[in-house]
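Students often ask what a holo structure prediction actually looks like on paper. The answer is less mysterious than it sounds. You provide the chain, you provide the ligand, and the output is a string of discrete structure tokens encoding the 3D arrangement of the protein together with copper (II) ion.
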Amino acid sequence: MRKALGSTIFVVVVALIVAGVGYSLNALARLPQTVTGVKTSPGAVTIHEDVFPFSPCTSNSSNPHADADFVALNPRYAQCSSSNDNLNWVWYSDPIISAPVNTVVTMEIYNYDSATPILNNYFTQPQGTTAGTMSVQIPAIKQLKDGSYQQLTTATANASGVSGLQPVALSAANCQPNNGSLCYAQYESLTAPVQGAGTGVYGPGTGVATTTNVPAAYVSHTFTIHGIAGSTSDAQPYLYISVPISGAYADAPSGASTPADAAGLPLAPTITTFSFTTPSRPGSYIWQCFDPCGANYNGFGGPMSTKGYMSGTFTVTA
Ligand SMILES: [Cu+2]
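The corresponding structure tokens follow.
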């Protein structure tokens, strides 16, 4: 009897611990609204993500990273979340993603975070994307540590009516439809892959001479979708997409200081764009970053282990 009581108490205690851990993980998770992107043509959507090293929001007066300059250009980020989101953590803006079956998804990821050299070269090349490629646009370097620098072009006013020293407008074609204020950045044409600011298309067999992909030291995050495929004919299909996200001013010469605003956000993001086609049947997948950009244990704690910062869901709907 005593033994039975002991094992019952043990089971109850273990159950409480499991429930407690589950509850606190869920309470810490950042779970904003699902994004479905902007429909660009029948069967095609564009999904935009911004990646930040911290939260620039200004509505919470105790936010040590409040960035009025950035928020003036990007009003979407003025409001700090009312939940217990961690304002110091690195994060993807829209972690909960959904797209229909048989759809060409174009992801454009604007990264304002610097590089964290990736440990596993497996993740330095695009995988599972259309034609196996991705496009990377690196903003022009305009200020060097040795004192030589070029001013960013002064725009008289941007889409939000803000004037002053701002990067000049990128072509309208590269602006995301629902946030015109993100279209301001100066990008130069790339003459040689990676060396010098500009745009490069990376894929198997391209990149700098010694590698076939983005140099590991330039990588800031990855965007990697995966899941478990079922074995029955009606189960969810295989889906695996992985792309390295280059850091802001990824190819800055060593010793260069990169143009940033007063709060420390780069004036222009590095833009990674890629496409893939969703499977023909619905499924539930997750996406996550595999670059150790977080805190604590080897950089894999904090935002790397809390849902909604460096991970989220990707749902393929019927
Ligand atoms: Cu990351």
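The first strand starts at residue 38 and ends at 41.
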